[in-house]
Every structure is written in C-alpha cells, then in structure tokens.
C-alpha cells in the first residue's frame, strides 16, 4: 500500500533534511518538489517561456548544475506563481506519491494540493533569523559570495510571494503537525518526525 508523507514549509526550515532522514528510516522514496520548480526556473533563465519550460521538463533537468543558487531560487518562486506551470507539474508529483512502498514529498503545497490524502503531514517552520543563518552557512560553505542580510531579504521576498500567491499558496494543511525547528537541533527535529510517523503508521 502507498504510504505518503507530506512535508511543507518555508525555505531553510529543515524540510529537506527531515525528508531525507524519514525516507532513510522507513526505506521509502523521496521527492524534493522544490527541485522541479527550480529546474523550471533554470530553464526560464535560459530563455524558455515558463509554461513551455514546465510542460516539457525532463527528469534529467532535475540533475542540472546550479539549481541551488539564489538566482534560480528567485526564478523558481516566480514561475511557481503561474497556475499553468503548477498544473503542468501535478501529474508527475502525484504519480511519484503513489509509488508502491510509499514516498516522502517535500515542498509548499504537498499536504494541501498535491497529496491531500497523505497519511502524515508536517509543516516545518523556523524563525526568519534562524532560517537565514542556516541558508547563509550553506551558501557561503559552497562558495557563494553572499551576505547574511542579502540571504534574509531573499528568503523574506520568496516566502511572501509563496504565501500570497492565489495558486496553491504556502499554508499549513488543517491536519498538518507544525514542527518549529528554531530551537531544535536537526537531530531533535528528525527524532520528533520519526516518532510521529511511527505512531501513525
Ligand atoms: O524548496 P525550494 O526552496 O527548493 O523551492 C524553490 C521554490 O519553488 C519555492 O520558493 C516555491 O516558490 C517553489 N515551490 C512551490 N511548490 C512546491 C515546491 C517549491 O511553489 N511544492
């Protein structure tokens, strides 16, 4: 039977790490849906029209270099506000969620739109300051020339656009468990998530 775990929340709250740890702990597949929007945004920056970029996206595009840059993140959040772009990407995500053996999907609208019937839903969040520090450490650690202020401003701009858009805005599903990781170590957050999934499965 397909067992689906939906993980949503703003950038740099810990979704990715928690998703990977859950996939590992329960031996199920993981899809970082942000990568789909980043790959679409990357193609937009390369001159492909946004809806066309989403409709013709190939699995190999998700492996492209440079998807983790601030410019691509901004382009991703711009294309993600276009309803036709989101529509073009739904089937791929739902098919992934239904794969036998179960799946973890993380993004912004997994518990609300893509998998409203998911067995377990989390909304992972943390304060702006904590998220900016985490993303700053990540970006400067991979050689990006950024300042903490810039990273904070970028996160706020992206979260505001993701929350305010009409199409599938970032909001916790009514039945999501909210996990605020501001004061937690990553090990504590992972432990809390594993405990909850174990109780529900
Ligand atoms: O999660 P990540 O930061 O990689 O996502 C990049 C952007 O893609 C987000 O800011 C958001 O605009 C968009 N996104 C989305 N829905 C998802 C996943 C990502 O709108 N399920």
What would you say this structure looks like, in words?
With 201 residues, this protein is an alpha/beta fold. It has a single domain, classed as P-loop containing nucleotide triphosphate hydrolases (Rossmann fold, 3-Layer(aba) Sandwich), CATH 3.40.50.300. Helices cover 53% and strands 12% of the residues. A five-stranded parallel β-sheet has the order 2-3-1-4-5, sandwiched between helices. Helix 4 packs parallel to helix 8. The N and C termini lie close together (11 Å). The mean pLDDT is 95. Bound molecules: cytidine-5'-monophosphate. The site of cytidine-5'-monophosphate (C5P) has 15 residues, from helix 2, helix 4 and helix 8.
Looking at the structure, what is the overall shape? globular
The residue-averaged pLDDT reads 95
Strand content: 5-15%
- Which oligomeric form is depicted? single chain
> How many discrete domains?
1
Low-confidence stretches: none
Describe the biggest sheet? 5 strands, parallel
Keywords: ATP-binding, Cytoplasm, Kinase, Nucleotide-binding, Transferase
Subcellular location: Cytoplasm
EC number: 2.7.4.25
GO molecular function, one term: ATP binding
């Amino acid at each position: 039977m397909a067992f689906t775990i939906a993980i949503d929340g703003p950038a740099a709250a810990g979704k990715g790490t928690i998703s990977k740890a859950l996939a590992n702990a329960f031996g199920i597949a993981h899809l970082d849906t942000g990568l789909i929007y980043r790959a679409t945004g990357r193609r937009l920056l390369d001159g492909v029209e946004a809806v066309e970029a989403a409709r013709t996206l190939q699995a190999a595009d998700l492996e492209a270099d440079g998807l983790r840059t601030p410019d691509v993140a901004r382009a991703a959040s711009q294309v993600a506000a276009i309803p036709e772009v989101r529509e073009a990407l739904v089937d791929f995500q739902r098919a992934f969620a239904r794969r036998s053996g179960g799946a973890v999907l993380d993004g912004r609208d997994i518990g609300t739109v893509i998998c409203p019937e998911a067995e377990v839903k989390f909304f992972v969040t943390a304060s702006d300051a904590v998220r900016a520090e985490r993303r700053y450490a990540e970006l400067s650690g991979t050689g990006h020339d950024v300042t903490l202020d810039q990273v904070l401003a970028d996160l706020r701009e992206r979260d505001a656009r993701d929350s305010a858009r009409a199409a599938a805005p970032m909001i916790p599903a009514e039945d999501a468990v909210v996990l605020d990781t501001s004061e937690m170590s990553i090990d504590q957050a992972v432990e809390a998530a594993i405990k909850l999934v174990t109780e529900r499965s």
